[in-house]
């Protein structure tokens, strides 16, 4: 790949040949002009010739030997000669292996090898003498623009495709092994290359024993997990390295940071690189890198050609004069605050204040804020920053303590890097117990200012509303704490109402009040659903009138609209909002939900991938999409056993693992369902039990659940369960769900549990109705740019 700076890269103190020397020999290269160590003998003068090559000068010396600039007198061309000093048998075999691997590849993006020879016991390789600089050198001046990185990626993958085609994996792809010339990039150093498969050729088989199982070979920052573990490698190992290399080229920081090899290994095995922020091209490029950097080789691209094809779909879009840059997003978690002494009266602040600070920071470009709930178990006096960084995928952690003294509340907070625990910023403040927003605002502003360099610019002001009174804010925080428990939603509703009596213009309280009414009417007071529906609609509309771009209001309102049969409108609104704020994972989580109602299962799954690209631990509700697409194995992966999700046993039933499902259900029911439930919630649980534990009473449980359903997706689920149980009336159940706005054309056509219903009268009509509605939604979705947003 050609860099616009290539022709200007040479300085008197650092000529191009010096750069070429460093890349041929590695980081330990030293010039012939370097002073010898005290007490050491001076280097011998270079020989006049090696074979038919006349030596011009010594370019450098490294661990493998010496590199000379020479002339092939028979052809009159200048070459680089790489030698091995006093080789033993293993070094000779390694040298021959490098030569054979390189000689087998004839490709414009691979450094060409001309000859392997020996002169008076001295082995050498004659190869191209290149002009330019390595990628490592180029990155010292800063990251590449997206267009440059795309071109570089295509060239590297083209070279790897040629190499892999010969059955050889490079195993040491890194910036110092990619040389950038004025005419494109060249892949260097096949010293670690080895056969992918046995039996390729006698020459390759001979070398297969050079690296035994369990031996780590490679460069730590770019090694795939299987390399670190000493497991077999293949072409996908090089694709992981290519992903790590391109990530660094795009944003100027390693994909897997660390100050030692062990720290890098830990990050590679257990952590995810941050998502990249910027233009739509950056997001599309990042999706390719996400797959290339999958921990499991099976999750990566099968070959370099497929990765190159996906990379070719990335459209920079901007004019050629524009320089588009990517930026690694900063990932932060605000841990629940610790009380220095027990204080039941204000215990609610432990998590609710942390959530409030997090909410204020969400929506900031280049910043992803993890849920404080996810970090609750790390809120100790001495947090384990390494474990925290690995489990939550964060770069920074805010910890803090609270102490009340009379009517004053004292707060001490520290912002630290993860996994190192290095202190970035600390803050101490106090305020009246009733003036909590003052503390939240100070914390949010301090975090933004401290992270300004990584966020770009000066960080700006944190987003968020300022309530008109301290009392209003206290009620809001108490309400968000109560709303975590569905059975406490009535309490939360009253607290939000109290907040809005104090401050009718506080938009977040209106959004959460709308959600409270929606869920209360759906599960707790079903008989009063019309009243709750009207109040929820009013609250959501009020929130969006006050704050048209309030992301949490849009997400919660979209879920409500989908249940009322307005999923298409909600999806289009979220698409427009996400186009202006591509870094908000919550918006994409909302699209997972509404796209499923529209029948756009592919878009729902893509929205899930985009949400997880931004936040690998975000709950998106994708398990319901996977259920409808009958991808039960993926559903199990999303509902890990420790999650205690009630749908996990149902997925086991669908896979024919009934005994395991029953055992799992019994554990979950005993642990999770001890609290008395409302009739609607009990009906839902009983219907799930009827699937896991079939019984004569099961049909009645499914019918009772259907009677409580307001949500058309719930109606559709009941129909699927009923069909599996062999109940009559399934077609009528499905018709009701489709007419109410659940246009699930894919599961209607393919879900295995619906097979008995497909031959019944009226089923084809329902399927056609769902397909027509899905097509209508798909056209509107594409017209709004939803397919481009999600990389479809």
Nutshell version of this structure?
The chain is an alpha+beta fold and 792 residues long. The chain contains 33 helices and 19 strands.
Top keywords for this entry?
alpha+beta, Transferase(Phosphotransferase), domain 1, six-stranded antiparallel β-sheet, six-stranded mixed β-sheet, 19 strands, 48% helix, disordered N terminus
Spans where pLDDT lies below 50 across 5 or more residues: 1-40, 197-217
Overall radius of gyration: 31 Å
Protein structure class: alpha+beta
Distance between the termini: 28 Å
CATH class of the largest domain: Mainly Alpha
On the 0-100 scale, what is the average pLDDT? 81
Tally of contiguous helical segments:
33
DSSP, total strands: 19
Helix content: 40-55%
- Roughly what fraction of the amino acids lie in strands? 5-15%
Which strand order does the major sheet show? 1-2-3-4-6-5
User: How is the main sheet built?
Assistant: 6 strands, antiparallel
Q: What is the molecular shape?
A: globular
The CATH architecture term of the largest domain is Alpha Horseshoe
Number of domains: 4
Kindly identify the CATH topology of the largest domain: Serine Threonine Protein Phosphatase 5, Tetratricopeptide repeat
